[in-house]
Amino acid sequence: MTISRADLAIDTGKIVDDLNDKGIVCIERFFSRDWLSHAQQDVRSAIERHGEKYFSVVLPGNAKGTAASELIRDERLRALLRSVTEAVCEQPNAEEIYNVLRVIAGPDGSKGSLEFHYDASVISALAPVFMPEHSENSGALVTFANRRPLRRFVLANVIEKIIMQNRFYRQRQARVVYSDPDKFTQYLVPGNLYLFWGYRTFHGNLPCAPHSLRATILLHYGNPHGNSILLKGIRAARRLVEAVRRRKSE
């Protein structure tokens, strides 16, 4: 299956410039209709398994035959992520593309919202599969773009996350967003591809209306800290917490 449109021209240099200047890049109609339809069917199947609620599927690309599997193996997309990452990181220590399917459904559309954070990857890509109708509660992406540089030392990154990724700081940032939503929010359109510097950009999403559906595939590429033992331990702990949360919600 063709993932992206064959007639799509991609200028990596311009994308890097726009990421540095604007913070986020939207490549309109990046995905083919066939791939998007496949991804939407996968989401419906996931909801049948997990129920209509907030949940995440870590590494959905490991399941053969899924839209996520096709996505992370697409050479055109991989080349895009690799070239953009290498433009800003001399030793990106790129591993396989870390991928997550994230779904917000059911009566509580606020689950998972306003949880602002930095990603561990150099570049983050967002493929919206379903989005609520465009309104105040449409789960828009929130970005505080390029708020920090690529850190050399892992410990500095950890300390910064402790300071900024707590409930009180997030509530403060939420007030900033709601004071000027047009400045910080981006409504996502299924079929488009969105790129931003995940490591450098403090980001999250707004709440969704009850009983709406928001589903996205997140892609993370490029490891600025290399094979840090501390970072590996933190990632392992985070995945353990995610696994516990999933079991409690099932």
Describe the structure.
The chain has 250 residues and is α+β, with helices and mostly antiparallel strands. The protein has one domain: q2cbj1_9rhob like domain (Jelly Rolls, Sandwich), CATH 2.60.120.620. Helix content is 38%, strand content 18%. The strands form two sheets. A six-stranded antiparallel beta sheet has the order 1-7-4-9-3-2, with helices on one face. A three-stranded antiparallel beta sheet has the order 6-5-8. The chain is globular, with a radius of gyration of 17 Å. The mean pLDDT is 88.
Given as residue ranges, the uncertain stretches (5+ residues, pLDDT < 50) are none
Provide the helix percentage. 25-40%
Distance between the termini: 33 Å
- What is the string of helix and strand elements? HEHEHHEEEHHHEEEEH
How are the strands of the largest sheet arranged?
1-7-4-9-3-2
Provide the CATH topology.
Answer: Jelly Rolls
Task: Please outline the major beta sheet.
Answer: 6 strands, antiparallel
**Number of beta-strand segments:** 9
Instruction: Provide the structure class.
Output: alpha+beta
* Mean pLDDT over the full residue set: 88
Q: Which radius of gyration do the C-alpha atoms yield?
A: 17 Å
Q: How does the overall form come out from the CA principal axes?
A: globular
What is the CATH level 1 assignment?
Mainly Beta
Number of domains: 1
Q: Any idea what the CATH superfamily is called?
A: q2cbj1_9rhob like domain
